[in-house]
## 1
Amino acid sequence: MKSENVKDRINLASPHMSDEGYEMQYIKEAFDTNWIAPLGENVNEFERELALKVGSKSAAALTSGTAAIHLALKAVGVGEGDVVFCPTLTFSATANPIIYQNATPVFIDSDFETWNMSPKALEEAFDLYPDVKAVIVVHLYGLSADIDKIMDLCKKQNVAIIEDAAESLGTYYKGQHTGTFGDYGIFSFNGNKIITTSGGGMLVSNNEEGIAKARFWATQSRDQARHYQHSELGFNYRMSNVVAGIGRGQLKVLSERVAKKNSIYEFYRRELSELEGVEFMPNNKWDLPNYWLSCMTLTGNIRPIDIMEALEKENIESRPVWKPMHMQPFYEKYDFVGGGASEKLFEDGVCLPSDTKMTDGDLERVVRIIKGLWKD
Ligand SMILES: *Cc1c(COP(=O)(O)O)cnc(C)c1O
């Protein structure tokens, strides 16, 4: 018999397959028909089902979210020497494909109201770089950026928008799914995301021709000919039929996962928001987040490192907020527009364990440890 072990591991966010075993059913179908690779029914259906879920006309299933950003940049015509605006407060995977295209990132600050791209900093950046080719907007931690304001500015400037919704599958801005506002949107099914295929990504757009072109690039840019002929540089970026089967199963439990993430966030907020110096991530009226990670900032005597160390001692995972790109050794030579918001969020922010497998007991354990720091 297993007694309650207080040292049981609690993860930040880990893969959570459906209780019903949907994923295995789709994988089994792929095996039974020997449709292991390359493409097949699961890929086609996963694309169709995801596009339907988010309300986009078409989708291309790819090997990763990073690959999807790369092809989105190609699709909007970003090439050598072009300037691309990118939020500084994000995971490096948002920015790296700009470099793959030999383009130049300019990093844009966040604001405290959204934690995402500051429309004010974006406006300043347009003055400095009127010839910018594309803007990548990120919906960090499942919080939507203030997309209307950002879209207005981009439209005035006539510049393409790519939405990095890797962390925001299940998030709605004014009733519309994030990732479907821009010219292209991307999702990630990496292991720690709200649903996972073990690894994978999706490119979505209402531009069906653009998506068809992305599929062409993703399968080595094979021209229509009996022999192998290539008029363009190709990539091996297509999702496999087995992996897509996991995705189809996971999509069925997305709303359950969002509900659980929401209850985790509500629990932390109820229990911790009264503590001296604690402030939770923003809750804007137009935003219906997926609460991928529950995050807060600390401006009192207790610092993020105190929480992370106290939890780590009890075998519980937590994390700092993303370190801004303009502070990264690889990216610090590129321009940055804005003030100190993203640096402050990085200094003061902590991501709490937000694993959908957490029990009520696990949540109480986390809260008890954190509250303990205020009692010493
Ligand atoms: C996870 C993530 C990505 C990359 O997705 P992969 O599927 O891991 O390549 C891109 N942007 C953000 C903001 C992410 O969190």
## 2
Amino acid sequence: MIDLRSDTVTRPTAAMREAMLQAPVGDDVFGDDPTVNALQERIAADLGFEAALFMPTGTQSNLCALMAHCERGDEYLVGQMAHTYRWEGGGAAVLGSIQPQPLPQGQDGRIEWAEIEAAIKPRDAHFARTRLLSLENTWGGQVLEAAYTADVTDKAHARGLSTHLDGARLFNAAVASGVAARELTRGFDSVSVCFSKGLGAPVGSALCGSRELIGRAHRWRKMTGGGLRQAGVLAAAALYALDHHVQRLAQDHAHARMLAEGLQGLPGVRVQTPQTNIVFVDLDASMQHRYPQGVVSALQHEGVLCTGLYRLRLVTHLDVSAHQIEAAVAAIRRVLG
Ligand SMILES: *Cc1c(COP(=O)(O)O)cnc(C)c1O
């Protein structure tokens, strides 16, 4: 099987497992795990923040960030299709009593400043208190440019808002654009990054921010059941990934381009040119009766796994080779041709 469902399907490499095996550990709830502490210091310094907190998942990391920024009855501004709003079970509203204000996004994932500004509520008892702007990079595999994020975070701050970045695939954005990750995080008061996506760790995310914000997030992490004990075995995988799996993301991006190019020219099939490791395929109305479940199962029959909730989505990662991409192209052409 060629598994293109997500970059989360990777298995830790032998060298990563060795790093996990050798990691010194302690009880992180007491703050005693040297490997967790090293990871937190490393990622905070790399991204230009005072502090960081290791998290079991990106969902919990985003949730704790939203809850650290906002109080009950506050509101956060977020893209209509953003992960924190759409794909995290409504946690901010359910667990944080934080009202999301979803806003339209362009094809490139941007929310125009005019939309953001128009959604900021007056300070009046009728309204939730608009407290936070949350953006996502990469968005649908596309890079939000530093010039855009610097501009809207500046303007948000001037209006008294805080800013959060869901940077689950921040390193993909950095590698694809040739802009340092810490430049892409400039202007954000907090950033969440995943180690378990393209970086290939089995588990883990980190939330970065000021010492004060991370202190508040720490309390929420405990309350949401995320206080881990000898978590150094997991942090070791993340540290290994930061050392060895960042630059190689360029290879996943090249594979995604190969895949997209290989699928050009099929009638009724539109393939978006990928910037990073995610390829979206849209089918014309004439093929919609086969879509998405029909196509997904037909591909599975041909040995290719992918997802098709809204559009067909194919994701490249550490565990797919150029050879497998060629085989996937041939299989997909057989199914869609
Ligand atoms: C995967 C993902 C998350 C959540 O990460 P989990 O570890 O799966 O909870 C958050 N945001 C984006 C954009 C993601 O792709």
